[in-house]
Amino acid sequence: MPDALAMQAAFAVTVAAYLIGCGLGTIHRLIEERRAEKMVRSIIADIERCDAAAAALIKFREAQSGQTPEGEYHAC
Fold first, then answer.
1. What is the 3-state secondary structure (H, E, C) of the chain?
2. Positive or negative, the Cα torsion across 67, 72, 75, 76?
3. Residue 3 and residue 10: Cα distance in Å, rounded?
4. Which of 23, 63, 35 lies closest to 72, judged by CA?
5. Are 51 and 45 in contact, with CB atoms under 8 Å apart?
6. Partners of 67 in the β-ladder
7. Widest distance between CA atoms in the chain
8. How far apart are CA 29 and CA 32, in angstroms?
9. pLDDT tens per residue, range 15-74
């Protein structure tokens, strides 16, 4: 009879270890997904910031040269 109890205990420990492993795997996957999403948002923000800086530089150069957005020049 003690052998049957030991087998049940070993089975319970095995199942518990398996479930803990599954849970840890899920948590790890969620952390990696969030990290990837955060990285993508950061890259998009960097691109938008660079685009805004380029647009501001273009407007500045146009204003400095007297050129309008339509390509006309206004001599001062």
1. CHHHHHHHHHHHHHHHHHHHHHHHHHHHHHHHHHHHHHHHHHHHHHHHHHHHHHHHHHHHHHHHHCECCCCCECCC
2. negative
3. 10
4. 63
5. no
6. 73
7. 104
8. 5
9. 999 999 999 999 999 999 999 999 999 999 999 999 999 999 988 888 888 766 665 655
User: Exposed (0-12), middle (13-18) or buried (19+): which is 62, by Cβ within 10 Å?
Assistant: middle
Please state, as a whole number, how many other Cβ atoms lie within 10 Å of the Cβ of residue 29.
Answer: 10
pLDDT at 64 (0 to 100): 82
What's the angle, vertex CA 62, arms to CA 56 and CA 63, rounded to 5?
90
28/6 Cα distance (integer angstroms): 33
| Selected residue with higher pLDDT from 4 and 17 | 17
pTM for the model stands at 0.58
